[in-house]
């Protein structure tokens, strides 16, 4: 009987991953704030959460391996790209760019705070595990 | 780790804005560079920005259509080229100018200094934003390094 990190850490590990990914997407939006025709993107937390919950509940579509040389594949539900969406622009712009620097900046800052929150929760889980191992 | 690619993305943004600032500096510096013929007169230069996508980060770029980037968010911004402004040059009658042609005209560059100043402020703000993004990403990464302590 070992410690199952997946069970012990719960959703916080994936939440932290999601925050890091979202930081990347938002940083890309801000880097392209002056690129003509660029469309702002964002990740939606609730749809990613729903996809993850679906994956945990139903499992992934694994491929059957009849030979040891076969590669283990995750199947259809493994991709997260479906949750990458376009932002609805608040006003039209001359160069068809939909990045609003203020909105992106606010989202980025909020995402950074959420990241800290997820990190604190994850850190507490680890501290709990360490206390359990030490038995002090 | 996707947090480290934030540094790359913000870096490409800062580099692109630096190029923009460079062209602004060049345009303003040459705003009064007169010449006797249309061909030799300085023309305002402007950078063209394009999104870097993951599959073209290897080197090939430019030819992809606008609708190909559905699945990925992109990996930053690049300067795909610098174009010269093709709008009309301004001829002025200055017969005393050493550069005047036989009719007494000199050609002034099509640099709009007010436009360039606005462009400079915009580039400077975008640069600041990218630097701030990098700073926040650094704080996030440093926090992760303290995990379990």
Q: How would you sum up this structure, described in words?
A:
The complex is a heterodimer of chains A (136) and B (149). Chain A is mostly helical and 136 residues long. Chain A has helices at 5-9, 12-31, 45-58, 101-134; strands at residues 41-43, 84-86. Chain A has a two-stranded antiparallel ribbon. Chain B is α+β, with helices and mostly antiparallel strands. Chain B is built from two helices and four strands. Chain B has helices spanning 2-29, 113-145, and strands spanning 45-51, 77-84, 90-93, 105-108. Chain B has a two-stranded antiparallel sheet with strand order 1-2. Chain B has a two-stranded antiparallel sheet with strand order 3-4. Chain A binds chain B through residues 16-17, 20-21, 23-25, 27-28, 30-38, 41, 81, 84, 101, 105, 108-109, 112, 115-116, 119, 122-123, 126-127, 130, and chain B through 1-3, 5-6, 9-10, 12-13, 16-17, 20, 48-51, 66, 71-77, 122-123, 125-126, 129-130, 132-133, 136-137, 139-140, 143-144, 146-148.
Task: Offer a quick outline of the entry.
The complex is a heterodimer of chains A (136) and B (149). Chain A has helices spanning 5-9, 12-31, 45-58, 101-134; strands at residues 41-43, 84-86. Chain A has 136 residues and is mainly α.
Topology (elements, then pairings):
The complex is a heterodimer of chains A (136) and B (149).
Chain A lengths: L4 H5 L2 H20 L9 E3 L1 H14 L25 E3 L14 H34 L2
Antiparallel strand pairs in A: 1-2
Helix pairs in contact in A: 2-4
Chain B lengths: L1 H28 L15 E7 L25 E8 L5 E4 L11 E4 L4 H33 L4
Antiparallel strand pairs in B: 1-2, 3-4
Helix pairs in contact in B: 1-2
Quaternary structure classification: heterodimer
Query: What's the average pLDDT of chain B?
Result: 86
Largest sheet of chain A: 2 strands, antiparallel
Strand content of chain B: 15-25%
Strand neighbour order, sheet with most strands of chain B: 1-2
- DSSP, total strands of chain B: 4
Mean pLDDT of chain A: 82
Major beta-sheet overview of chain B: 2 strands, antiparallel
Order of helices and strands of chain A: HHEHEH
Kindly, what is the distance between the CA atoms of the first and last residues of chain B, rounded to a whole number of angstroms?
21 Å
N-to-C span of chain A:
21 Å
């Amino acid at each position: 009987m070992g410690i199952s990190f997946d069970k012990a850490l719960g959703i916080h590990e994936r939440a932290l991953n999601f925050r890091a990914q979202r930081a990347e997407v938002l940083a890309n939006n801000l880097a392209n704030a002056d690129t003509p025709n660029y469309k702002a993107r964002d990740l939606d937390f609730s749809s990613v959460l729903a996809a993850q919950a679906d994956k945990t509940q139903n499992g992934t579509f694994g491929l059957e391996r009849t030979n040891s040389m076969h590669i283990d594949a995750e199947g259809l539900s493994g991709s997260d790209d479906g949750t990458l969406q376009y932002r609805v622009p608040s006003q039209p712009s001359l160069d068809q760019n939909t990045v609003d620097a203020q909105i992106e900046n606010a989202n980025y800052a909020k995402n950074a705070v959420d990241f800290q929150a997820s990190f604190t929760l994850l850190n507490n889980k680890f501290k709990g595990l360490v206390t359990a191992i030490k038995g002090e | 780790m996707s947090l480290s690619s934030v540094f790359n993305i913000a870096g490409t943004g800062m580099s692109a804005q630096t190029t923009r600032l460079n062209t602004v500096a060049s345009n303003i510096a040459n705003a009064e560079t007169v010449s006797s013929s249309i061909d030799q007169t300085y023309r305002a230069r402007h950078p063209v920005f394009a999104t870097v996508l993951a599959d073209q980060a290897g080197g090939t770029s430019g030819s992809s259509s606008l609708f190909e980037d559905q699945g990925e968010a992109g990996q930053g911004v690049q300067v795909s080229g610098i174009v010269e402004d093709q709008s009309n040059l301004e001829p002025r009658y200055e017969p005393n100018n050493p550069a005047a042609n036989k009719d007494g005209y000199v050609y002034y560059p099509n640099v709009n200094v007010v436009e360039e100043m606005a462009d400079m402020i915009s580039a400077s703000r975008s640069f600041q934003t990218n630097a701030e993004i990098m700073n926040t990403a650094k704080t996030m990464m440093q926090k992760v390094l303290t995990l379990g302590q």
